[in-house]
Structure formats: C-alpha cells, structure tokens
Design a protein that fits this description.
Rossmann fold, 5-stranded parallel β-sheet, 9 helices, two-stranded antiparallel sheet
C-alpha cells in the first residue's frame, strides 16, 4: 500500500521568489496548489462564496459576474475589520478546496502548497514540511516594482508590513532558501528536494 503524499508548504514574503522555486518543482513533474490563484478562482466561481462576499460588500462586489477587485480593495483599505471578515470567508473555502485537491492527488509522492501567508494564518500546521524563501526587503521591493508596474512603492511596503518578518518565520520553517542572487537557488532547492524524498520513504 502506497503511503500518502508528503504535503510541503512553500512560502515567503512578497517578491521573495516563491514562484521561482515552484517552477523548479514543476520541472521535476510535481503538482503545486497555488492558494492565492485558487482563492481568486473561488471568489469568481463558487456560488456560496460569492453570496457571502455580496452579503459583506453588497451587489457592487461583483461587476458582470466577476469580482470587482478595485471596489473590494478600496473597501478593505478603508476598513481593516472588513478585510478580516473577508479573509474569514475566503480562507475556509481555500482550505476545503485544497483538501479536495490533496484527496484527488493521493497517489503523488510529494504535493506542494504555495501561499504567502502560510505562517500568518496557521495553515503550516496542516503541512508535513515547510520551505521558506527569503530575500532582503530592498531586493524584494525592487523585484515587485519591476514585476507589478501598477503597484506603487508605498502599496508594496504596506503589504510587507502586514506580513510576518523573515526573523519571525525562520524558526517556524523546516527548510530555508536564500534567494538573494548570490546563493545558488537551484542547488539549495535540489538539496531540500533530496531530503523531502528521503522523508517520504
């Protein structure tokens, strides 16, 4: 009887390079659950979640049956309590969706779960292992400004301020990848990969 897959969380602050690490694991033919992407999909496609969001924000929460991200963003920016209420609706939906995803991929050796807030929302407690991707705040800011040209420096720093610092997250993580353009990321990732495969045996 095959053992169940090892569930591995991949996390890090905005601009740390989580997607780079995910691409390496995808190249190795492993499946990855992108929590933020699934959350967006669920907010647009789950009738139950859409109803809950409209209860919170009113009919303006959706435009042409799609989430009105600009409107929602304005509302939660003005009212942090609304953001907490929104997260209280979205996080359980993502948790249930990811649980189904794991069940549907039960024959895999390793399954990866990518999310920015694994430690902040406590989902790391449901993982078998976690990988934290780090980089300096200066480098992360530079990366996000280059990638997301619609974001201002102030808005990026605001996102960073709402995330736990690397110093707080490092003690919680099982593995650490330093993605600072000085250390070889592929070698770090492959070393961790070998350890994960050994853990699954």
């Amino acid at each position: 009887m095959q053992s169940k897959p090892l569930i591995v969380g991949i996390t890090g602050g905005i601009g740390s390079g989580k997607s780079t690490i995910c691409k390496i694991f995808e190249t190795l033919c492993h499946k990855i659950y992108y929590a933020d992407d699934r959350a967006k999909w669920l907010m647009n496609n789950s009738n139950e979640l859409k109803s809950q969001i409209m209860d919170l924000f009113g009919e303006s929460a959706y435009s042409d049956n799609l989430l009105n991200r600009e409107f929602i963003g304005e509302q939660v920016f003005k009212n942090s309590a609304l953001l907490e209420k929104l997260n209280a609706k979205v996080h359980p939906a993502v948790r249930e969706d990811s649980k189904n995803w794991v069940e549907n991929n039960a024959d895999e050796e390793l399954l990866f779960y990518e999310a920015a807030l694994i430690f902040e929302v406590g989902s790391y407690k449901r993982m078998d292992a976690t990988i934290l991707v780090t980089a300096s705040e200066e480098l992360r800011l530079k990366r996000v400004l280059a990638r997301d040209t619609y974001r201002s420096e102030g808005s990026i720093k605001q996102i960073m301020s709402k995330q736990m610092s690397d110093a707080e997250k490092i003690p919680l993580a099982d593995y650490l990848i330093i993605n600072d353009e000085k250390n070889a990321v592929i070698k770090q990732t492959m070393d961790i990969y070998d350890q994960l495969l050994n853990r699954h045996k």
